[in-house]
Amino acid sequence: MRRTTTSLALAAAALLLAGCGSQSGSDNAGGGKVSPSAPSSSAPAKGGCAADVQLKAADGGRTVCVAKGGEVRLTLDGTKSRPWKPVMVSGSALKGINAGFVLQPGDATAAYHAVTAGTVKLTSSRPLCAQPTAPGQVSCKGIQEWTVTVTVK
C-alpha cells in the first residue's frame, strides 16, 4: 500500500509539472522563450523621443519615450483560453483614443495621444495557463504581468 501511495504521488507531481509547462493546440501566444525586440517607433521628434510608438507583449518591462502630440498604440496577442485583461493606465500624460476593433478573442488593444509631459505606466495581465476544460485536468494560478513605462516629453 505504501509503495502505491508513493508512486501515485510521484506520478501526480510529474503530471502537474508537465501540465503547467506545456501547451496544446494552436494556443501558443505568449508561450516559449520571447526574444525582446525594440518597440517599433517613428523617427525621433524633438527631445529624442519618438513621434509614434507601437508596443507588443514582448515589450513588457521596457521604458519608452514619446513626444508630446505623438501616439502610443499597443496590441497584446492573447487567446480565448488565456485572454489579456484591458490595459490600465496610471498617470495623466496620455489620453485614450480609438484603438479600432479587437478581432481575436483574448487580445487587448489600446491607443493613446500624448497630451502633456509626464510619466505613465501601462499594465495588463493574463493567466499563465489555460483553465481546465474537463474534470480531473490540472490548473495553475500563475499570472503573466505586462508593464511598460511611457515618458512623454
Main attributes of the structure:
153 residues; Immunoglobulin-like; 8-stranded mixed beta sheet
Reconstruct the topology from this structure.
Elements: H1 2-21, E1 40-41, E2 50-55, E3 63-76, E4 88-90, E5 94-97, E6 108-114, E7 118-127, E8 143-152
Parallel strand pairs: 2-3, 3-8
Antiparallel strand pairs: 1-2, 3-6, 4-7, 5-6, 7-8
Describe the structure.
The chain has a domain at 50-131 and 141-152: Immunoglobulin-like (Sandwich). The termini are far apart. Residues 1-38 have low confidence and may be disordered. With 153 residues, the protein is mainly beta. Strands 1, 2, 3, 4, 5, 6, 7 and 8 form an eight-stranded mixed β-sheet that branches. The protein has one helix and eight strands; from the N terminus they run H-E-E-E-E-E-E-E-E. Helices cover 13% and strands 37% of the residues.
Number of helices: 1
| Percent in helix | 10-25%
The description of the largest β-sheet is:
8 strands, mixed
Instruction: Calculate Rg over CA atoms.
Output: 20 Å
